[in-house]
Amino acid sequence: MSITLIGKHEKDSRNCRDGYVNAMLELMEADKSVCHVDCDLYNCINTAKLAKAYPDRTINAGIAEANAMGIAAGLTATGKKAWIHSFGCFSSRRAFDQAFMSAAYAKLGVKVLGSDPGVCAAYNGGTHMPFEDCALYMSVPDAIVIDPVDYVQVYDLTKKLTAVEGRLSYMRMIRKGFTTVYADGSEFEIGKGVTLKESDNDVATIIASGIMVDESLKAYEKLQEEGISVRVIDMFTWKPIDEDLIVKCAKETGAIVTAENHNCTVGLGAAVARVLAEKAPTPVEMVGVHDQFGQVGAQAYLQEVYKLTADEVVANVKKVLARK
Amino acid sequence: MQKAEKMQALREFAAEIRVETLKTIGSLGFGHVGGSMSIVEAMAVLYGDVMKVDPKNPRWEDRDWCVLSKGHAGPCAYATLALKGFYDLELTRTLNKPATNFPSHTDRTKTPGVDLTTGSLGQGMSTATGAALGNKIDGRDNHVFVFVGDGECDEGQVWEAAQFAAHYKLDNLVCFVDSNKRQLDGPVDEIMSHGKGLGAKFDAFGWNVIEVEDGNDVEQVYDAVHAAVEVKGQPTAIILNTVKGKGATFAEPSGAHSSQPTPEQWEEAIAAAEAELAAVKAAK
Description:
The structure holds two protein chains of two kinds. Chain A is α/β, with parallel strands linked by helices. Chain A is 40% helix and 18% strand. Chain A has two domains: 16-173, 3-Layer(aba) Sandwich (Rossmann fold), CATH 3.40.50; 194-321, Rossmann fold, CATH 3.40.50.920. Chain A has helices spanning 16-30, 42-45, 48-53, 65-77, 88-94, 96-105, 133-138, 151-162, 211-225, 243-253, 268-279, 299-305, 310-322; strands spanning 34-38, 58-60, 81-87, 111-115, 144-146, 169-173, 194-197, 204-208, 230-234, 237-239, 256-263, 284-289. In chain A, the strands form two sheets. Chain A has a seven-stranded mixed β-sheet, sandwiched between helices. A five-stranded mixed β-sheet of chain A has the order 7-9-8-11-12, sandwiched between helices. Chain A is globular. Chain B is built from ten helices and seven strands. In chain B, strand 6 (208-212), helix 9 and strand 7 form a beta-alpha-beta unit. Chain B is globular and about 50 Å long. The chains are: A alpha/beta, B alpha/beta. Chains A and B meet through helix 4 and helix 6 of A and helix 5 and helix 6 of B.
């Protein structure tokens, strides 16, 4: 792992989907076994570029996600490295039995891509707003579950996941550009959290991923202004979660706040709390969706509605500090 | 080999599979007898004649594939693969016992020769279709044979896969529809009927369709499969009109999905199947 943090809260000039597509163009060029299966959504994530460059290995399965998952598993059984994409709600809920049995249980390492995670589904509304996609995949034994934040991270993790064999993986993906957190060339290790801010004076740790990484960096700055020093972790891998890092942060800072664009009662917050309960009991507060359905609206509006904001992270840090 | 001779050999193979399938399930005392017995002749034709396989190298890249999307027919596959030399026949007697490699439903990670994992109905149809596509992309000269049950055809996924296979012109895919007319709760026509018929449905989905009047007749199945593998430009569905529980004295009359007969009934059924095998051999 070698990363360079930018984290200036600037809008990413590149779309996350292009991180996936650009990585795939390189992967498909280098390795004839790499395939992409889509569900009538080429035009949503620019995978038409893959179809143009590699028409035999870019497969449109139409609006039939359950079958598409099976197609990806069957391709994998013949030696292919197959990705399958739909919106996060459908690539999880709609094809879950298939992902579980045809792929994971059969030890076929299908790579599942779910776009528009949580509030990023915005104007598609509650029907399309997965706050449970990662939870479903986290319930699959030995699965890998990833919630990345920007172009650079998606690009690198697309390559890393493609190399994983025999193990189901699920990666969420913001379709458009959100905020730039990492500089080009940053590389990540599946299962290892990234420490973005750290000092000897940290009194709490914020463990975040996806769109909440930038909000957490903003919260860090606000807390700094008040003389409160916190650690910030990008826990982009939810499973297998970086237990060692969680325990280290708990022991060194004594308080934890998690932050996620997902139902925290079954997501990152729950996963972190489980590790702490078992290995280092520590006060935890969770920023995230608390067992609610999604709804329609602009992403910024929805972040306010579901309290997925820097201010909420700040409030929860203060709350957890009061419990120390 | 003359065709008559070949048919005789396949009839013997089928009779052997029937005996060993019964003994496999009988070793535990209960299981999915009905749907295991109805596909015996098709399995005999595939493994006795049509399929390129290498028992010493089950994952041979250029092999033909067999997928039981109706995964509960696993015991029939286990008996067939054992008789074909993939592993010792005695191992099949561990069926569903602790730490076995022969689980109720077929599992590619456990049993040599099992190509895909099935059990949740409809899914094997999609994974078999994906395997056919993968083989086609790589230009392999082989086929994927998939078995779906007529009850299984209630599952929407079967039809998602069917439209996909036709759209991508997967002529290396052959689907056997085991039309044994019964599903768990009773006759297929009463539980969930199939409109103008399963053949008409596959035809409407763009498949080549071959109806086999008696799917428990080796020669009829043989002719259908040999016709199917010659078809270009579309996948073929072979509708096998079969009898659920065929040849199992306790199961055939009722057409039961799963059975737990008494030890005496097992003895009677196995003795009857062995007598049938002897009769087939004697007819040579």
